[in-house]
Amino acid sequence: MKVFRISLLVFAFFALSCKEAVVPFEPNHEKMVESLLLENQSILEVFLNENPKPDWKDFSNVVQTLITSNHPKLKSWGEAIKVQIPNSETDLDTSYEKISKIQEILIQIKAEVPNQSKYNRFYCPMVDKSWLMTGKEVKNPYAPEMRDCGELMQ
């Protein structure tokens, strides 16, 4: 029985020591995320227009900087966002779905990367989607007929 306990303790020690190292976010990483959220703000503001035609070039360039960064989480998030960026031929409904998935990743980034308090999370129960924008006023990018539908999440 003692051998079993000792073996179990040794196994638990090795299992816990194999845990992935947490890489801290440096100021340059925070600036990358700040740039990403700023470009996201620009894209969402285009979607507030009557006939939105967003240009994803600048947003894509910022996402590429995340992918080429030396931080594993930023790299992973960048790759996840990159596959969601709508192409120019994408219809509006497909764009909304892709933007929604991008927003979910950005919400996670905002929660984990320090000093991103300038952006607030909003949620619209009618379309069941969230987004990040500056300010406290609801400007729903998903529902052209209901721009003020949603709430500021704390």
TrEMBL record:
PROSITE patterns: PROKAR_LIPOPROTEIN. Keywords: Signal. The keyword Signal applies. Residues 1-21 form the signal peptide. It comes from the Bacteria. This is DUF3347 domain-containing protein. It comes from Leptospira yanagawae.
